[in-house]
Specification:
mainly alpha, Na+/H+ antiporter like fold, 16 helices, globular, disordered C terminus, sodium, transport, Cation/H_exchanger_TM, sodium transport
């Protein structure tokens, strides 16, 4: 891990605060404003010592973003949507990755392994980007749940898929049995790690009504679950997602006090704001260092293929559920397709590519180009699309963290 520069961090947070004020008044996505500000900072005669690295994203910034989203996901509707979500993040991601990988191999001439790496890292939606884009949009509760839940699960699937490809790149031939065993160990180990950290610490939180202690315990849960899973080479994202669901649905039902719950939610909203601010500013700074014009053909092909792959991931999978209780309105499908933004996760995986991949440098640059398109084109047009489709609702009808309201809407489950 790089040495943390608190002076630079303070300057970035000051810029982020100004951007937040400006984008709020201009009714523009905060994430796009941050990237523009990052580009502006990079053009000034100053040096930003804080750089975007895989370690900074994975071990510092990603855990709180996943945890903050997970604690607001109510279990009952999440469980109700789980068959659809699983289909989207398995078959859907495989379809998306396959479209991108085959296209980059056939059109640009990348090696199969390099194209497969790029397909996996760019096919899954990134919760950092998706959550940042949807924070200010008050959409119908089910759509909000589908977007955030799918992005979180996709994040974990991308990491697992990337790890499998690393096995191929470093170990040579890997049999189907080894891949299946790795999948089972990774997913089950991640869920176990999340539960192993969250359950006892939530129980300890139930022994106090001090909201500061309760907030501290949730910090330990968020980072502890992630680090424990990664220590055993499992998905830290799935572990933190598991821990967040436990805290949000079990902890808020009694273990965390009534005064502690708003303190916990407010704390994590602020931490997510900090993490998003740093990530998108540093993306903007790094974009100026990328020789995108030198790979403009590959970047254009990758952008088009990523959209085609996302369409293949959303529409066919959801059509399969058209005659079931999980049928999804076409309006939702369009939002899920266009809302499949890419962000810091794709960049972290690209930066973590093995050095043995011949196209490594090109893949990193192309990934930054696709992320830029995602943030500026898809992110900026998302509010227009929501308005056009008539999906905006009052804020109280969109908030996932309101478990009581969601339970009433979902069939009268017992109130917390």
């Amino acid at each position: 891990m790089q040495e943390f520069d608190f002076t630079t961090l303070g300057a970035l947070l000051f810029v982020a605060s100004l951007v937040a004020i400006a984008t709020h008044r201009l009714k523009l996505p905060y994430s796009a404003g941050l990237v523009v500000a990052g580009v502006g900072i990079a053009l000034l005669p100053v040096t930003v010592s804080l750089t975007l690295t895989p370690d900074l994203i994975f071990f510092v910034l990603l855990p709180p973003l996943v945890f903050e989203a997970a604690i607001q996901i109510p279990w009952r509707p999440f469980r109700h949507e789980l068959p659809l979500l699983i289909a989207l993040v398995t078959f859907g991601v495989l379809l998306a990755a396959g479209v991108v990988a085959i296209g980059m191999h056939m059109l640009i001439g990348w090696s199969w392994l390099g194209a497969a790496f790029f397909g996996v890292l760019i096919a899954a939606t990134d919760p950092v980007a998706v959550i940042a884009a949807f924070k200010a949009l008050h959409v119908e509760r089910r759509l909000h749940l589908l977007v955030e839940s799918e992005s979180l699960l996709n994040d974990g699937v991308a990491a697992v898929g990337f790890a499998i490809l690393v096995m191929f790149a470093t170990s040579g031939a890997v049999g189907p049995g080894e891949v299946a065993l790795h999948l089972i160990e990774n997913i089950s180990g991640a869920i176990a790690a999340g539960a192993a950290v969250a359950v006892p610490l939530v129980a300890i939180a139930g022994r106090t009504t001090d909201r500061l202690v309760e907030v501290t315990i949730t910090m330990l849960i968020a980072y502890g679950s992630f680090l424990l899973a990664e220590h055993f080479h499992c998905s830290g994202v799935l572990a933190t997602l598991t821990a967040g669901l436990i805290v949000g649905n079990y902890g808020f039902l009694g273990s965390i006090s009534d005064t502690g719950r708003p303190a916990v939610l407010n704390h994590w909203e602020y931490v997510a704001f900090l993490a998003n601010s740093v990530i998108f500013l540093l993306i903007g700074v790094r974009e100026t260092q990328m020789p995108i014009l030198a790979v403009i053909e590959a970047a254009g092909a990758a952008t088009a293929l990523s959209l085609l792959g996302r369409a293949a991931a959303v529409y066919p999978v959801m059509v399969a559920f058209a005659r079931t209780r999980l049928a999804v309105p076409w309006k939702y499908k369009h939002v899920l397709f266009w809302g499949g933004l890419r962000g810091a996760l794709a960049l972290a995986l690209a930066l973590a590519l093995p050095a043995s991949i011949p196209e490594r440098g090109t893949i990193i640059t192309v990934a930054f180009a696709v992320v830029a398109f995602s943030i500026f084109v898809q992110g900026l047009t998302m509010p227009w699309l929501i308005d056009r489709l008539g999906l905006k609702v009052k804020p109280e009808a969109a908030h996932l963290g309101d478990l009581k309201a969601y339970n009433r809407d979902d069939g009268g489950a017992p109130e917390a």
